[in-house]
């Protein structure tokens, strides 16, 4: 047996006015068929409803149990490109794409799970113009009993233009994401190139200068003045070499290319503890973090940005990073015991770090949640599908 959808009222307002008009019309017909023919006072509310429905800006139609249209206002006729007279008496399937069932009721013309629009009472459907052109509609339905029969009144809205704009916005959004991903890739390639140049060229040059300085020390003898000057030069060279390594590592850690994500995260953790004095635990398995360059770089940058935000804003004393694989997905959790992030902080236009984290996650078709629900501190949960990024 076919299961019928519930006929509970959907939508009020103008629909109820339309029902009042229908009730008045039926009463008028009944009165006209009676002996006394006195229907003027009784038909006054119906005439009032008729005027309101006739002048309503929204399309309103009513159909009976056999899905035949018994009422249509001018707005509905304009929507479908026909006259009111053409609509009234026509089957509903002429103007709204019918479901497959032959005995479909008006309620069945709108998808059972097709909720749409800003209101929970809006249901999606497909309209058919006079030339057969389909277009997207939303309908709010209310049913009532009239003289033993059910009358369904539907308020319709043409949402084809809104959907076109939404599709255009979605395409623009996708293009912006693709552009953002391309820019991230280009920037990472530039970082890698500059880091390699610094390490291979400038690093070797500084190391060579230090060796030459050692030879110069032997050649100049051991005069106190010469030793003082050479010692100062050597100290400056060591500082320059340390700065060079720090800059090159920030641009692109060599451990990411030589050891993989696990060792790069270890180095990031150690540097974070040393520079900021905040305890940090890394809970991960090296074998679960054997990923290709795209995924490894994205995860490293996400964790790096999270630690940067914690150091700048959280006032935390401890951070825990947990990375593990489950059913082809990598789950990343970063928690701190700081002041906790506020909703307003996540919506700030200048929160570019959070925006960058989200873009990197979305570029890998992942999901990210940032919350401060579990006080104290902030929790970042990331889910990344990595079955196509393992090595």
Short description:
With 391 residues, this protein is an alpha+beta fold. The protein is built from eleven helices and ten strands. It has helices at 14-33, 44-55, 74-80, 84-87, 160-220, 224-251, 254-258, 261-276, 293-314, 343-346, 352-363; strands at residues 59-63, 69-72, 123-128, 134-146, 149-158, 279-283, 318-326, 329-336, 367-371, 379-385.
Topology overview:
Elements: H1 14-33, H2 44-55, E1 59-63, E2 69-72, H3 74-80, H4 84-87, E3 123-128, E4 134-146, E5 149-158, H5 160-220, H6 224-251, H7 254-258, H8 261-276, E6 279-283, H9 293-314, E7 318-326, E8 329-336, H10 343-346, H11 352-363, E9 367-371, E10 379-385
Parallel strand pairs: 6-7
Antiparallel strand pairs: 1-2, 1-5, 3-4, 4-5, 7-8, 8-10, 9-10
Helix pairs in contact: 1-2, 5-6, 5-11, 8-9, 9-11
Plain-language structure description:
Helix 1 crosses helix 2. Strand 1 and strand 2 form a beta hairpin. With 391 residues, the chain is α+β, with helices and mostly antiparallel strands. It has 3 domains: 14-158, 2-Layer Sandwich (Beta-Lactamase), CATH 3.30.450.20; 168-252; 259-391, Histidine kinase-like ATPase, C-terminal domain (Heat Shock Protein 90, 2-Layer Sandwich), CATH 3.30.565. The chain has helices spanning 14-33, 44-55, 74-80, 84-87, 160-220, 224-251, 254-258, 261-276, 293-314, 343-346, 352-363; strands spanning 59-63, 69-72, 123-128, 134-146, 149-158, 279-283, 318-326, 329-336, 367-371, 379-385. The longest helix has 61 residues, at 160-220.
């Amino acid at each position: 047996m076919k299961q019928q959808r519930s006929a509970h009222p959907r939508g009020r307002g103008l629909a109820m006015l339309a029902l009042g008009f229908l009730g008045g019309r039926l009463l008028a017909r009944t009165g006209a068929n009676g002996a006394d023919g006195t229907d003027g006072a009784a038909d006054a509310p119906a005439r009032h409803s008729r005027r309101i429905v006739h002048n309503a800006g929204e399309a309103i139609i009513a159909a009976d149990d056999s899905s035949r249209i018994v009422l249509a206002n001018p707005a509905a006729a304009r929507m479908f490109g026909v006259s009111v007279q053409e609509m009234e008496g026509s089957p509903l399937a002429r103007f709204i794409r019918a479901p497959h069932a032959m005995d479909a009721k008006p309620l069945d013309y709108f998808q059972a799970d097709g909720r749409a629009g800003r209101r929970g009472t809006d249901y999606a459907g497909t309209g058919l113009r006079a030339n057969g052109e389909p277009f997207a509609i939303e309908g709010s339905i209310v049913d009532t009993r009239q003289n033993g029969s059910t009358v369904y009144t539907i308020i319709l809205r043409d949402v084809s233009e809104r959907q076109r704009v939404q599709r255009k916005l979605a395409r623009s959004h996708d293009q912006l994401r693709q552009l953002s991903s391309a820019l991230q890739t280009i920037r990472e390639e530039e970082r890698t190139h500059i880091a390699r140049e610094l390490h291979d060229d400038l690093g070797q040059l500084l190391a060579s200068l230090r060796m030459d300085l050692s030879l110069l020390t032997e050649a100049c003898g051991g005069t106190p003045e010469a030793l003082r000057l050479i010692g100062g030069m050597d100290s400056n060279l060591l500082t320059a070499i340390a700065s060079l390594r720090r800059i090159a590592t920030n641009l692109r850690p060599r451990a990411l290319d030589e050891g993989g994500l696990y060792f790069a995260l270890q180095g990031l953790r150690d540097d974070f503890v040393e520079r900021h004095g905040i305890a940090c635990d890394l809970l991960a398995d090296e074998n679960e973090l054997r990923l290709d360059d795209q995924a490894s770089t994205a995860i490293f940058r996400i964790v790096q940005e999270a630690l940067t935000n914690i150091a700048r804003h959280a006032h935390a004393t401890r951070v825990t990073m947990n990375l593990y694989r489950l059913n082809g997905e990598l789950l990343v959790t970063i928690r701190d015991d700081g002041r906790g992030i506020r909703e307003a902080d996540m919506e700030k236009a200048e929160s570019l770090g959070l925006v960058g984290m989200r873009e990197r996650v979305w570029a890998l078709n992942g999901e990210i949640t940032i919350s401060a629900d579990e006080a104290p501190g902030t929790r970042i949960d990331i889910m990344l599908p990595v079955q196509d990024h393992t090595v």
